[in-house]
Amino acid sequence: MSLESDVECCKRLQWRLRLVVSPFVRVGVLTGGGDCPGLNAVLRAVVRKGERYYGDEIVGFRDAWDGVMDRRTTPLTIETMRGLLPRGGTVLGTRRGSPFDRPEGVDQVEATMSDMGIDGLIVIGGNGSLSVANKLYTERGIPIVGIPKTIDNDIEGTEVTFGFNTAVQIATDAIDRLHTTAESHDRVMVVEVMGRHSGWIATHAGIAGGATVVMIPERPFNIEEVCDRITRRHQRGRFASIVVVAEGALPLPGTIEVADREVDQFGHIQLGGIGALVAQEIRARTGFETRPVLLGHVQRGGTPTAADRVLSTRFGVEAIDAVHRGAWGQMVALQADRIVEVPLSQVAGRTRQLDLSLFDDVAQVFFA
Ligand code: F6P
């Protein structure tokens, strides 16, 4: 064993012993990446179990990693969390970005934790934040427990992320509304939903909303085939159609051209626009009146569904228990309706793609 890994081992042992010696801990919590419905419900659950059951002090870091590096905190207590269960967004604020983006960033995280006496961190985030959490744990021994969140449902290791159910419900409600206006005008409505790398929202909302066609990132689409389906539907006397497109869906190479997308300062490609392109192509190739609808951030806003509130609460309770077990480097997850722990190393840098049997064996049965 190298000297470096000895040091890492000692560090982790030190954190673990501290928890064994003292049952009360000071836990830092942050929310990272894009927001999603259910974040406040998770925070509330961490605080409720931590404060009432273990006597912990929960410190909220504002604006994700920025708050840890710059020591911007807010106390989270049972009192301050009152009434937040159904509230969308996150009271802590959130950002993209990571301590690894700043030259002194990781040292700042460590300094904050030791100066403030923070025994461990709970990181509530998506693929980006959980990868950062894994790196901080494996490379620097920082004690972290992860909680998966994203409306996209694309995190490895868990069968569901909170926020997904709400996003699907919002998209389904929108599709239900679009059916009636599409029918009044004999139009094709092209609904673009979120789903950067995966077609979970598109497929679930497409099935629930009775879509004519669904297009997902996992399956490059053939625009000719899409137009043929809609035309055949018209020939059968069905003049209104709903086409659901995931924002990350792409055409088969050499079919239609997609303009280069902007990339933000964190290397995050700005999606949104494939629905308008698909609508334009359908109109041009079929002659049918077609309208694009971009649902965008509506899917991420507002109150979480009951299912998301329950999942968020289960994750929050389990995460604070994991802290007290010293289960550092783990992420809480849902598998076969049980909350389990999965090593962050098995989650980092991966994307959970749609179960294609849902697309091929179920969704496609209802395509025009
Ligand atoms: O959180 C995931 C996600 O909702 C993606 O589906 C979407 O592409 C992205 O966030 C949008 O990010 P932003 O809010 O930074 O535009």
Give a description of the structure:
The protein contains eleven helices and eleven strands. The chain has 368 residues and is an alpha/beta fold. It folds into two domains: 3-162 and 304-346, Rossmann fold (3-Layer(aba) Sandwich); 166-297, Phosphofructokinase domain (Rossmann fold, 3-Layer(aba) Sandwich), CATH 3.40.50. Strand 1 (26-31), helix 2 (39-54) and strand 2 form a beta-alpha-beta unit. It binds 6-O-phosphono-beta-D-fructofuranose. 6-O-phosphono-beta-D-fructofuranose is lined by residues 33-34, 126, 150-152, 194-196, 247, 271, 300. 6-O-phosphono-beta-D-fructofuranose binds at residues 33-34, 126, 150-152, 194-196, 247, 271, 300.
How many discrete domains? 2
Total DSSP helices = 11
Bound molecules: 6-O-phosphono-beta-D-fructofuranose
Give the distance, in angstroms, between the N- and C-terminal Cα atoms.
62 Å
Q: Work out the helicity level.
A: 40-55%
Number of strands: 11
CATH architecture field of the largest domain: 3-Layer(aba) Sandwich
Main sheet, how many strands, which sense, barrel?
A: 7 strands, mixed
- Give the overall pLDDT as a whole number: 94
Name the overall outline: elongated
Query: What gyration radius follows from the Cα positions, in whole Å?
Result: 23 Å
What structural category arises from helix and sheet content?
Answer: alpha/beta
Indicate the CATH class of the largest domain. Answer: Alpha Beta
Q: What name does the CATH topology of the largest domain carry?
A: Rossmann fold
Poorly predicted regions: none
**Element-level helix/strand string:** HEHEHEHEHEHEHEHEHEHEEH
Strands of the widest sheet, in order across it, are 3-2-1-4-5-10-11
Strand content: 15-25%
